[in-house]
Automatic annotation (TrEMBL):
<dbReference type="InterPro" id="IPR003607">
    <property type="entry name" value="HD/PDEase_dom"/>
</dbReference>
<dbReference type="InterPro" id="IPR037522">
    <property type="entry name" value="HD_GYP_dom"/>
</dbReference>
<protein>
    <submittedName>
        <fullName>HD family phosphohydrolase</fullName>
    </submittedName>
</protein>
<dbReference type="Pfam" id="PF13487">
    <property type="entry name" value="HD_5"/>
</dbReference>
<feature type="domain" description="HD-GYP">
    <location>
        <begin position="116"/>
        <end position="312"/>
    </location>
</feature>
């Protein structure tokens, strides 16, 4: 069995790989050559900002190692795939709109495409952070929400069947928006009560369509119907509370919130990826599921580590540490100088840069 050396980011490591070179910082050995990687080691290394590439061996033959390298895509490759997926969703929704929905074959095939990308989780998250879904509140937004929901489902430990059903639900969650007048969807000013009522009814339009599919698991329908419900009853269209909200809807709500806040819309600019994290954290106290939000935030901040950000004074810095109790003010590195943004009231992160 051939041993091939790979250079991977911390979040691309897998349990069972073997450290190929000593990891040393300030004369301290963080991990010795020959160490077998475990999940706790991966979690620890993911929090160390200077580790951009780690040399590892993998106990696979050379052909399989080549496949591992090929599976991990760049941000640019993910963006190309997601652009293609956006057109796929538009085509699927057009067919549904014209002929109704008899089965989920197209949705299943599409969900499989998304799940095949999930080995490149870092690139997916960075792509969504960098690009959002722009003013496309239906098709690209559905792609982003489906990807984030599937990732969160994995982090929560859902089994393969439930992740499949969750992905179907996330893809279809905003189909009802295709039934809303585009002038209302793209309106820059304040919506009238009548217009807002139409917006609030889009989950019902989606639900009424997909519930007709024979033998469809009800969880898919409930995820679609309830993704705007909130634990305190402030959501829509039903105004239900707490445990009455299906777990798929709770997951989709987090993904939906993140992408919406982090995207430019016709009526406002993106508030950025840090504001998106802050809003999810704030809403976890009564509106969104607290435990699901905690898992999402604990994992996502690891993917922000080591990324370069633009500050509002035009400095480019690297994220070193993020305090989960103060998400908007990370510790950053500029050249050789550390800046704690909690202690720099005039400085803030504008955006993550490529």
């Amino acid at each position: 069995m051939a041993m091939m050396k790979l250079f991977l980011r911390p979040n691309d490591l897998k349990p069972g790989m073997i450290i190929a070179e000593d990891l040393i910082e300030n004369n301290i050995v963080l991990a010795s050559k020959g160490t077998i990687i475990t999940q706790p080691i991966i979690d620890k290394l993911s929090q160390i900002y200077f580790l951009n590439r780690i040399a590892v061996f993998h106990e696979e033959d050379e052909k399989k190692n080549s496949l591992i390298i090929d599976k991990v895509k760049s941000v640019e490759e993910v963006e190309k795939s997601f652009n293609e997926f956006t057109f796929n969703v538009e085509d699927i929704f057009d067919v549904i709109d014209s002929n109704g929905i008899k089965d989920l074959e197209d949705i299943r095939a599409f969900a499989k495409k998304i799940q095949n990308e999930l080995d490149s989780t870092r690139a997916i998250i960075k792509n969504i952070v960098l690009n959002g879904s722009g003013t496309d509140t239906i098709y690209r937004h559905s792609v982003n929400v489906a990807a984030l929901s599937s990732i969160l489902g994995r982090w929560l430990g859902l089994d393969e069947r439930d992740i499949n059903l969750l992905t179907y639900s996330a893809v279809l969650h905003d189909f009802g928006k295709t039934k809303i007048d585009k002038e209302i969807l793209n309106k820059k000013g304040t919506l009238t009560p009548k217009e807002f009522h139409q917006i609030k009814n889009h989950p019902i339009a989606s639900y009424n369509l997909i519930k007709q599919v024979p033998f469809l698991d009800s969880s898919v329908c409930y995820g679609v119907l309830m993704h705007h419900e909130r634990l305190d009853g402030s959501g829509y269209p039903l105004g239900i509370k707490g445990e009455k909200i299906h777990e798929f809807a709770k997951i989709i709500a987090i993904a939906d919130t993140f992408d919406a806040v982090n995207s430019n819309r016709v009526h406002r600019k993106s508030r950025g990826p840090f504001a998106a994290l802050e809003i999810i954290q704030k809403d976890s106290l009564g509106k969104l599921d607290y435990e699901y939000c905690k898992v999402f935030l604990d994992h996502v901040v690891n993917y922000y580590m080591g990324e370069e950000v633009l500050l509002n004074n035009d400095m480019i810095c690297k994220i070193i540490q993020i305090n989960v109790n103060d998400l908007a003010h990370p510790l950053v590195l500029h050249d050789t100088e550390f800046l704690d943004l909690k202690k720099e009231p005039g400085l803030k992160v504008e955006r993550i840069v490529k």
